[in-house]
Amino acid sequence: MAKTKIRLGSEFTGLWLSNAVANLGDGLSVAAGPLLLASLTSDPLLVAASLFAQQAPWLLFSPLGAALLDRGPDRRLLLVALTTTRCAVVAALAALVWLDLATIPVVYALLFTLGAAGALADGAIGALVPALVPAADLGTANSRVSAGTLAGSTLLGPALGAWLFAVAAAAPFTAEALGFAVAAVLLRGRRQAPPIEVVTRAAPPPPPSLAEGLRWLWHNRLLRLLALALLLMNMTLYGFLGVLVLYARERLDAGPAAFGLLLAATAAGGVLVVPLVPRLVDRFGPVPLLRAGLVVETVAHVALALVRAFPAAIAVLVVFGAHSVLWGTITRTARARVVPDRLRRSVNGAFLLFSSGGAALGAIQGGLVARAFGVTGPLWVAAVVVGLLSALTWQLLAVVGGEDG
Protein backbone atom coordinates (compact mmCIF):
# COMPACT_ATOMS: atom_id res chain seq x y z
CA MET A 1 0.00 0.00 0.00
CA ALA A 2 1.47 3.35 -1.06
CA LYS A 3 2.16 5.91 1.65
CA THR A 4 0.18 9.15 1.53
CA LYS A 5 2.46 12.09 0.87
CA ILE A 6 1.89 14.87 3.38
CA ARG A 7 1.62 18.32 1.80
CA LEU A 8 2.08 21.11 4.30
CA GLY A 9 1.28 23.98 1.96
CA SER A 10 3.18 26.86 0.41
CA GLU A 11 2.88 29.05 3.51
CA PHE A 12 4.68 26.51 5.67
CA THR A 13 7.24 25.86 2.92
CA GLY A 14 8.12 29.55 2.81
CA LEU A 15 8.45 29.69 6.57
CA TRP A 16 10.55 26.52 6.63
CA LEU A 17 12.90 27.78 3.89
CA SER A 18 13.33 31.12 5.64
CA ASN A 19 14.06 29.42 8.97
CA ALA A 20 16.52 26.97 7.38
CA VAL A 21 18.46 29.79 5.70
CA ALA A 22 18.46 31.85 8.92
CA ASN A 23 19.74 28.90 10.94
CA LEU A 24 22.52 28.31 8.45
CA GLY A 25 23.48 31.93 9.06
CA ASP A 26 23.38 31.36 12.81
CA GLY A 27 25.71 28.42 12.37
CA LEU A 28 28.23 30.58 10.52
CA SER A 29 28.57 32.90 13.53
CA VAL A 30 28.72 29.99 15.99
CA ALA A 31 32.19 29.32 14.58
CA ALA A 32 33.13 32.77 13.28
CA GLY A 33 32.35 34.61 16.54
CA PRO A 34 34.90 32.75 18.71
CA LEU A 35 37.43 32.79 15.86
CA LEU A 36 37.09 36.56 15.58
CA LEU A 37 37.58 37.02 19.34
CA ALA A 38 40.57 34.67 19.29
CA SER A 39 42.11 36.84 16.55
CA LEU A 40 41.71 39.92 18.76
CA THR A 41 42.91 38.42 22.07
CA SER A 42 44.41 35.25 23.52
CA ASP A 43 42.88 35.82 26.98
CA PRO A 44 40.64 32.78 27.62
CA LEU A 45 38.13 34.80 29.64
CA LEU A 46 37.69 37.41 26.91
CA VAL A 47 37.33 34.69 24.27
CA ALA A 48 34.82 32.74 26.37
CA ALA A 49 32.82 35.91 26.94
CA SER A 50 31.84 35.80 23.26
CA LEU A 51 29.91 32.60 23.98
CA PHE A 52 28.37 34.27 27.03
CA ALA A 53 27.23 37.14 24.80
CA GLN A 54 25.56 34.66 22.45
CA GLN A 55 23.91 32.57 25.20
CA ALA A 56 22.82 35.18 27.75
CA PRO A 57 20.02 36.55 25.52
CA TRP A 58 18.28 33.17 25.66
CA LEU A 59 18.17 33.48 29.45
CA LEU A 60 16.97 37.08 29.37
CA PHE A 61 14.71 37.27 26.34
CA SER A 62 12.99 33.89 26.10
CA PRO A 63 10.45 34.77 28.86
CA LEU A 64 9.93 38.19 27.23
CA GLY A 65 9.45 36.50 23.88
CA ALA A 66 6.72 34.24 25.24
CA ALA A 67 4.83 37.23 26.65
CA LEU A 68 5.29 39.20 23.44
CA LEU A 69 3.97 36.34 21.33
CA ASP A 70 0.94 35.92 23.59
CA ARG A 71 -0.01 39.60 23.61
CA GLY A 72 2.04 41.29 20.91
CA PRO A 73 1.78 42.09 17.20
CA ASP A 74 1.29 39.88 14.17
CA ARG A 75 3.81 37.06 14.50
CA ARG A 76 4.83 37.05 10.85
CA LEU A 77 5.50 40.80 10.87
CA LEU A 78 7.45 40.36 14.10
CA LEU A 79 9.53 37.60 12.49
CA VAL A 80 10.23 39.77 9.43
CA ALA A 81 11.36 42.62 11.69
CA LEU A 82 13.61 40.33 13.74
CA THR A 83 15.17 38.76 10.64
CA THR A 84 15.80 42.21 9.14
CA THR A 85 17.39 43.30 12.42
CA ARG A 86 19.69 40.28 12.40
CA CYS A 87 20.68 41.10 8.82
CA ALA A 88 21.56 44.69 9.76
CA VAL A 89 23.54 43.67 12.85
CA VAL A 90 25.64 41.08 11.03
CA ALA A 91 26.17 43.43 8.08
CA ALA A 92 27.54 46.03 10.51
CA LEU A 93 29.86 43.44 12.04
CA ALA A 94 31.04 42.34 8.57
CA ALA A 95 31.79 45.95 7.61
CA LEU A 96 33.79 46.51 10.80
CA VAL A 97 35.84 43.37 10.19
CA TRP A 98 36.45 44.25 6.53
CA LEU A 99 37.66 47.72 7.62
CA ASP A 100 39.74 46.26 10.47
CA LEU A 101 37.77 48.36 12.97
CA ALA A 102 36.27 45.57 15.08
CA THR A 103 36.96 45.88 18.81
CA ILE A 104 36.17 43.41 21.58
CA PRO A 105 33.38 45.46 23.27
CA VAL A 106 31.69 46.17 19.93
CA VAL A 107 31.83 42.49 18.95
CA TYR A 108 30.25 41.53 22.29
CA ALA A 109 27.46 44.07 21.82
CA LEU A 110 26.68 42.92 18.28
CA LEU A 111 26.75 39.22 19.23
CA PHE A 112 24.43 39.93 22.16
CA THR A 113 21.98 41.81 19.93
CA LEU A 114 22.12 39.01 17.38
CA GLY A 115 21.41 36.44 20.10
CA ALA A 116 18.48 38.45 21.47
CA ALA A 117 16.85 38.71 18.04
CA GLY A 118 17.49 34.99 17.48
CA ALA A 119 15.84 34.01 20.78
CA LEU A 120 12.72 36.02 19.93
CA ALA A 121 12.67 34.72 16.35
CA ASP A 122 12.76 31.09 17.50
CA GLY A 123 9.72 31.75 19.66
CA ALA A 124 7.91 33.33 16.72
CA ILE A 125 8.65 30.30 14.53
CA GLY A 126 7.27 27.96 17.16
CA ALA A 127 4.08 30.01 17.41
CA LEU A 128 3.59 30.35 13.65
CA VAL A 129 3.81 26.68 12.71
CA PRO A 130 0.54 25.65 14.44
CA ALA A 131 -1.23 28.53 12.67
CA LEU A 132 -0.14 27.34 9.22
CA VAL A 133 -0.43 23.56 9.51
CA PRO A 134 -3.41 21.33 10.39
CA ALA A 135 -3.14 19.75 13.83
CA ALA A 136 -2.81 16.26 12.34
CA ASP A 137 0.36 17.30 10.49
CA LEU A 138 2.05 19.23 13.32
CA GLY A 139 4.41 16.36 14.15
CA THR A 140 5.71 16.24 10.58
CA ALA A 141 5.99 20.02 10.36
CA ASN A 142 7.86 20.37 13.66
CA SER A 143 10.26 17.56 12.75
CA ARG A 144 11.10 19.34 9.49
CA VAL A 145 11.70 22.60 11.31
CA SER A 146 13.95 20.80 13.82
CA ALA A 147 15.88 19.07 11.03
CA GLY A 148 16.50 22.38 9.28
CA THR A 149 17.66 23.94 12.53
CA LEU A 150 20.00 21.06 13.34
CA ALA A 151 21.49 20.92 9.85
CA GLY A 152 22.06 24.66 9.59
CA SER A 153 23.02 25.87 13.04
CA THR A 154 25.00 22.91 14.36
CA LEU A 155 26.18 20.74 11.46
CA LEU A 156 26.74 22.64 8.19
CA GLY A 157 26.89 26.22 9.45
CA PRO A 158 29.83 25.96 11.89
CA ALA A 159 32.00 23.99 9.45
CA LEU A 160 31.25 26.44 6.63
CA GLY A 161 31.70 29.47 8.88
CA ALA A 162 35.12 28.31 10.07
CA TRP A 163 36.23 27.55 6.49
CA LEU A 164 35.09 31.00 5.31
CA PHE A 165 36.92 32.63 8.24
CA ALA A 166 40.10 30.87 7.14
CA VAL A 167 39.63 32.47 3.70
CA ALA A 168 38.84 35.95 5.04
CA ALA A 169 37.82 37.01 8.55
CA ALA A 170 34.83 39.02 7.31
CA ALA A 171 33.61 36.39 4.83
CA PRO A 172 31.36 34.37 7.20
CA PHE A 173 29.68 37.51 8.53
CA THR A 174 29.09 38.78 5.00
CA ALA A 175 27.58 35.44 4.01
CA GLU A 176 25.45 35.45 7.16
CA ALA A 177 24.09 38.92 6.38
CA LEU A 178 23.18 37.79 2.87
CA GLY A 179 21.49 34.71 4.33
CA PHE A 180 19.34 36.80 6.67
CA ALA A 181 18.43 39.08 3.76
CA VAL A 182 17.25 36.07 1.77
CA ALA A 183 15.34 34.76 4.81
CA ALA A 184 13.55 38.11 5.21
CA VAL A 185 12.62 38.19 1.51
CA LEU A 186 11.20 34.67 1.75
CA LEU A 187 8.99 35.82 4.62
CA ARG A 188 7.90 39.09 3.02
CA GLY A 189 7.20 37.40 -0.29
CA ARG A 190 4.33 35.38 1.14
CA ARG A 191 1.07 36.71 2.40
CA GLN A 192 -0.28 35.27 5.61
CA ALA A 193 -3.14 32.96 4.66
CA PRO A 194 -3.39 30.11 7.15
CA PRO A 195 -5.06 27.05 5.61
CA ILE A 196 -6.93 26.35 8.83
CA GLU A 197 -10.46 27.66 9.22
CA VAL A 198 -10.75 30.00 12.17
CA VAL A 199 -13.78 29.38 14.39
CA THR A 200 -14.97 32.22 16.61
CA ARG A 201 -15.18 31.16 20.24
CA ALA A 202 -14.75 32.55 23.69
CA ALA A 203 -11.25 33.72 24.50
CA PRO A 204 -9.23 31.01 26.26
CA PRO A 205 -7.88 31.64 29.75
CA PRO A 206 -4.38 33.14 29.86
CA PRO A 207 -1.59 30.55 29.77
CA PRO A 208 0.21 29.70 33.02
CA SER A 209 3.09 32.03 33.81
CA LEU A 210 6.75 31.09 33.80
CA ALA A 211 6.76 31.50 37.58
CA GLU A 212 4.00 28.90 37.85
CA GLY A 213 6.01 26.55 35.67
CA LEU A 214 9.07 27.06 37.88
CA ARG A 215 7.06 26.34 41.03
CA TRP A 216 5.55 23.19 39.54
CA LEU A 217 8.97 22.02 38.37
CA TRP A 218 10.60 22.61 41.74
CA HIS A 219 7.94 20.70 43.66
CA ASN A 220 8.24 17.67 41.39
CA ARG A 221 11.11 15.43 42.50
CA LEU A 222 11.86 14.09 39.02
CA LEU A 223 11.80 17.46 37.26
CA ARG A 224 13.88 19.11 39.98
CA LEU A 225 16.53 16.42 39.56
CA LEU A 226 16.54 16.73 35.77
CA ALA A 227 16.66 20.54 35.87
CA LEU A 228 19.60 20.65 38.29
CA ALA A 229 21.44 18.00 36.28
CA LEU A 230 20.85 20.03 33.12
CA LEU A 231 22.16 23.17 34.80
CA LEU A 232 25.39 21.49 35.96
CA MET A 233 25.97 19.58 32.72
CA ASN A 234 25.50 22.72 30.63
CA MET A 235 27.79 24.70 32.91
CA THR A 236 30.58 22.17 32.46
CA LEU A 237 29.99 21.67 28.72
CA TYR A 238 29.88 25.38 27.88
CA GLY A 239 32.84 25.99 30.14
CA PHE A 240 34.81 23.93 27.62
CA LEU A 241 33.03 25.20 24.50
CA GLY A 242 33.83 28.77 25.49
CA VAL A 243 37.55 28.09 25.07
CA LEU A 244 37.26 25.39 22.39
CA VAL A 245 38.79 27.69 19.78
CA LEU A 246 41.89 28.11 21.99
CA TYR A 247 41.93 24.39 22.79
CA ALA A 248 41.98 23.64 19.05
CA ARG A 249 44.81 26.07 18.43
CA GLU A 250 46.99 25.44 21.48
CA ARG A 251 46.31 21.79 22.29
CA LEU A 252 45.58 20.25 18.88
CA ASP A 253 47.62 22.67 16.74
CA ALA A 254 44.55 23.05 14.51
CA GLY A 255 43.58 25.99 12.32
CA PRO A 256 40.23 27.79 11.90
CA ALA A 257 38.75 25.26 9.46
CA ALA A 258 39.57 22.39 11.82
CA PHE A 259 37.84 24.27 14.66
CA GLY A 260 34.65 24.21 12.60
CA LEU A 261 34.96 20.46 12.21
CA LEU A 262 35.24 20.07 15.98
CA LEU A 263 31.95 21.94 16.37
CA ALA A 264 30.29 19.89 13.64
CA ALA A 265 31.52 16.59 15.12
CA THR A 266 29.20 16.90 18.11
CA ALA A 267 26.21 17.53 15.84
CA ALA A 268 27.21 14.61 13.63
CA GLY A 269 27.16 12.27 16.61
CA GLY A 270 23.67 13.46 17.45
CA VAL A 271 22.45 12.89 13.89
CA LEU A 272 23.88 9.37 13.85
CA VAL A 273 22.18 8.29 17.08
CA VAL A 274 18.70 9.72 16.35
CA PRO A 275 17.36 6.66 14.47
CA LEU A 276 18.77 4.35 17.16
CA VAL A 277 17.18 6.05 20.17
CA PRO A 278 13.89 4.07 20.26
CA ARG A 279 15.69 0.74 19.95
CA LEU A 280 18.26 1.65 22.60
CA VAL A 281 15.55 2.71 25.04
CA ASP A 282 13.55 -0.46 24.38
CA ARG A 283 16.64 -2.64 24.77
CA PHE A 284 18.25 -1.11 27.86
CA GLY A 285 15.62 1.14 29.45
CA PRO A 286 15.89 4.86 30.25
CA VAL A 287 17.54 4.66 33.67
CA PRO A 288 20.56 2.52 32.64
CA LEU A 289 21.04 4.76 29.59
CA LEU A 290 21.00 7.92 31.71
CA ARG A 291 23.48 6.40 34.15
CA ALA A 292 25.70 5.29 31.27
CA GLY A 293 25.42 8.79 29.80
CA LEU A 294 26.88 10.37 32.92
CA VAL A 295 29.78 7.92 32.81
CA VAL A 296 30.32 8.61 29.09
CA GLU A 297 30.31 12.36 29.70
CA THR A 298 32.84 12.07 32.54
CA VAL A 299 35.16 9.87 30.48
CA ALA A 300 34.79 12.16 27.44
CA HIS A 301 35.96 15.19 29.44
CA VAL A 302 39.00 13.26 30.70
CA ALA A 303 39.79 11.98 27.20
CA LEU A 304 39.62 15.48 25.69
CA ALA A 305 41.92 16.75 28.44
CA LEU A 306 44.50 14.09 27.58
CA VAL A 307 44.46 13.82 23.78
CA ARG A 308 46.62 15.90 21.47
CA ALA A 309 45.67 14.34 18.13
CA PHE A 310 42.94 16.06 16.13
CA PRO A 311 41.30 12.80 14.88
CA ALA A 312 41.08 11.51 18.45
CA ALA A 313 39.36 14.70 19.59
CA ILE A 314 36.89 14.40 16.70
CA ALA A 315 36.07 10.82 17.70
CA VAL A 316 35.44 11.79 21.33
CA LEU A 317 33.18 14.67 20.30
CA VAL A 318 31.14 12.42 18.00
CA VAL A 319 30.51 10.06 20.94
CA PHE A 320 29.72 13.03 23.17
CA GLY A 321 27.20 14.33 20.64
CA ALA A 322 25.46 10.97 20.48
CA HIS A 323 25.24 10.86 24.27
CA SER A 324 23.83 14.41 24.42
CA VAL A 325 21.00 13.65 22.00
CA LEU A 326 20.19 10.36 23.74
CA TRP A 327 20.14 12.02 27.16
CA GLY A 328 18.02 14.91 25.90
CA THR A 329 15.49 12.64 24.21
CA ILE A 330 15.03 10.46 27.29
CA THR A 331 14.66 13.40 29.68
CA ARG A 332 12.21 15.24 27.40
CA THR A 333 10.11 12.08 27.20
CA ALA A 334 10.16 11.74 30.99
CA ARG A 335 9.09 15.37 31.30
CA ALA A 336 6.23 14.89 28.85
CA ARG A 337 4.90 11.97 30.91
CA VAL A 338 4.53 13.94 34.13
CA VAL A 339 3.76 17.53 33.08
CA PRO A 340 0.05 18.34 32.56
CA ASP A 341 -0.84 19.73 29.14
CA ARG A 342 -1.91 23.04 30.66
CA LEU A 343 1.54 23.59 32.18
CA ARG A 344 3.69 22.17 29.40
CA ARG A 345 4.65 25.49 27.84
CA SER A 346 5.51 27.18 31.14
CA VAL A 347 7.47 24.17 32.43
CA ASN A 348 9.38 23.95 29.14
CA GLY A 349 10.17 27.65 29.54
CA ALA A 350 11.45 26.97 33.04
CA PHE A 351 13.73 24.23 31.73
CA LEU A 352 15.01 26.67 29.10
CA LEU A 353 16.06 28.98 31.94
CA PHE A 354 18.10 26.18 33.54
CA SER A 355 19.60 25.27 30.15
CA SER A 356 20.50 28.78 29.00
CA GLY A 357 21.51 29.86 32.49
CA GLY A 358 23.93 26.96 32.73
CA ALA A 359 25.35 27.76 29.29
CA ALA A 360 25.87 31.45 30.04
CA LEU A 361 27.38 30.90 33.50
CA GLY A 362 29.46 28.01 32.21
CA ALA A 363 31.11 30.13 29.53
CA ILE A 364 32.37 32.61 32.14
CA GLN A 365 33.37 29.83 34.55
CA GLY A 366 35.34 28.09 31.80
CA GLY A 367 37.11 31.29 30.83
CA LEU A 368 38.17 31.94 34.42
CA VAL A 369 39.40 28.37 34.91
CA ALA A 370 41.27 28.37 31.59
CA ARG A 371 42.89 31.70 32.44
CA ALA A 372 44.19 30.20 35.71
CA PHE A 373 45.01 26.60 34.67
CA GLY A 374 45.22 26.50 30.87
CA VAL A 375 42.79 25.36 28.17
CA THR A 376 42.41 21.86 29.59
CA GLY A 377 41.44 23.21 33.02
CA PRO A 378 37.70 23.41 32.23
CA LEU A 379 37.77 19.77 31.12
CA TRP A 380 39.22 18.57 34.42
CA VAL A 381 36.66 20.64 36.33
CA ALA A 382 33.92 19.16 34.15
CA ALA A 383 35.12 15.61 34.79
CA VAL A 384 35.06 16.14 38.56
CA VAL A 385 31.63 17.84 38.57
CA VAL A 386 29.93 15.31 36.28
CA GLY A 387 31.61 12.44 38.12
CA LEU A 388 30.21 13.71 41.42
CA LEU A 389 26.82 14.26 39.80
CA SER A 390 26.87 10.67 38.61
CA ALA A 391 27.65 9.34 42.08
CA LEU A 392 25.04 11.50 43.81
CA THR A 393 22.21 10.76 41.37
CA TRP A 394 22.87 7.09 40.60
CA GLN A 395 19.98 5.91 42.76
CA LEU A 396 17.81 9.01 42.27
CA LEU A 397 17.75 8.52 38.50
CA ALA A 398 15.64 5.42 39.07
CA VAL A 399 12.73 7.83 39.58
CA VAL A 400 12.66 8.33 35.80
CA GLY A 401 11.72 4.70 35.22
CA GLY A 402 9.77 4.19 38.42
CA GLU A 403 12.43 1.83 39.78
CA ASP A 404 13.50 1.42 43.37
CA GLY A 405 17.20 1.35 42.71
Provide a descriptive summary of the structure in words.
The protein is 80% helix and 0% strand. It has helices spanning 10-40, 44-71, 75-98, 104-132, 138-167, 171-188, 210-218, 221-241, 244-250, 256-273, 277-284, 286-306, 310-338, 344-373, 377-393, 398-401. The chain has 405 residues and is mainly α. The protein has 16 helices and no strands. It has two domains: 9-197, MFS general substrate transporter like domains (Growth Hormone, Chain: A, Up-down Bundle); 208-405, Growth Hormone, Chain: A, CATH 1.20.1250. Helix 1 (10-40) packs antiparallel against helix 2 and helix 5 runs antiparallel to helix 10 (256-273). It is globular and about 55 Å long. Residues 192-203 have low confidence and may be disordered. It holds the Pfam family MFS_3. It is a multi-pass membrane protein.
